[in-house]
Amino acid sequence: MTTPTLAIVGCGTMGEAILGGLLAAAAIPADKLIATHHREQRCAELSETYGIRVIRDNAEAARAADVVILCVKPQMAGGVVRDVAGELDDTLLVSICAGVRCAQLEQWAPRARVIRAMPNTPSVIREGMTVLSGGRHVGEGDLDLATTVFSTIGRVRVLEEKHMDTVTSLSGSGPAFACVVLEALADGGVMMGLPREVAVELAAQTMQGAARLVLESGEHPAALKDRVTTPAGCTIAGLLMMEDGRIRSTLARTIQEAARVAGGLGQGD
Ligand SMILES: NC(=O)c1ccc[n+]([C@@H]2O[C@H](COP(=O)([O-])OP(=O)(O)OC[C@H]3O[C@@H](n4cnc5c(N)ncnc54)[C@H](OP(=O)(O)O)[C@@H]3O)[C@@H](O)[C@H]2O)c1
Does ligand 1 have an atom closer than 6 angstroms to the CB of 116? Predict the structure, then answer.
């Protein structure tokens, strides 16, 4: 298979993370990558930093590309896709816009094959989590190609689109929820006399270590928790305090509520 030409349309925070991942992984050569931005200065900066072609004209980029990754804000998505729809014949259109559904993308660009993707901000350091859902016209090869692209910035799962609101909440908004938990743990350390900088480092590395242990061992989190819980020890004392504060239902309901709100995003157009 020849290497596809890939265009990142609306190269902001997430677009740049995807671009950086693709180049670092040498997944696609620089001469097969195009990015767009509506501001001339941003185009020049991106071009200088990454050594790729960066232009203001979205339609020109779409015309040259086999794969278009749409990275503008959700409220801009309809306008941008309709503007370039004439250039999306036989093109794979991958949208990362929160709340924008495959059916909407297919309506705006009827001749494109559509994939909806939900990455998250740790993608910037290639520790992202991306979920992909295929539209009506995609084939296995399209999902494989999108998986290859997003694997350069972290883990990838393919799921049915009905799960996307939950995914948007759990892994899309999740880094914000995790940071609140992390900050609260660090606050406890500060309360007990640790300097803030030390407390944040200890909390962050501990959360990263616990998360990696779950992923790499494949064990249930409860089993890993039980392993550090000595009878009559300090860990069980802390755990009971967490239960008194209803932390489990608070966090689970956080995901439920954010998923409910996610269901209404991107539906203004
Ligand atoms: N950030 C996240 O955690 C996250 C996670 C998953 C998915 N997403 C989705 O990813 C998308 C991008 O998010 P982001 O955080 O990367 O936003 P962002 O930094 O604002 O990126 C979008 C970029 O597109 C530019 N732009 C606006 N109109 C344009 C046009 N007509 N043509 C070309 N470029 C244009 C914007 O420029 P200006 O700044 O000048 O407006 C901005 O730099 C959103 O749809 C969001 O839902 C974000």
Answer: no
